[in-house]
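User: Can you predict the 3D structure of HTH lysR-type domain-containing protein? Sequence below.
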Amino acid sequence: MIEAIDAFILAAEHNSFSIAAKKQGKSQSAVSQLIHNLEIDLGYELFTRKGRFISLNDNGHALLKQARLVKAQYSRFVQHAEQ
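Assistant: Sure. Here are the predicted structure tokens for HTH lysR-type domain-containing protein:
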């Protein structure tokens, strides 16, 4: 799930699944699938898709801040676990 959240954040920041994929070291199709599965879990789309172009929709904008908080909390969790 954290991979999907990270993919969502990166895609939102760059308006690109391809750039998000490069930053995660994954294929574009893998990132698209992560985000698609996240959208299925949530029950709604996070991006407006127009051909090869994406942009956050209202749902995506509403969740981006929370996604960043979850990612930060997860990082703290991992740091604590490694101590």
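The first strand starts at residue 47 and ends at 50. Strands lie at 47-50, 53-56.
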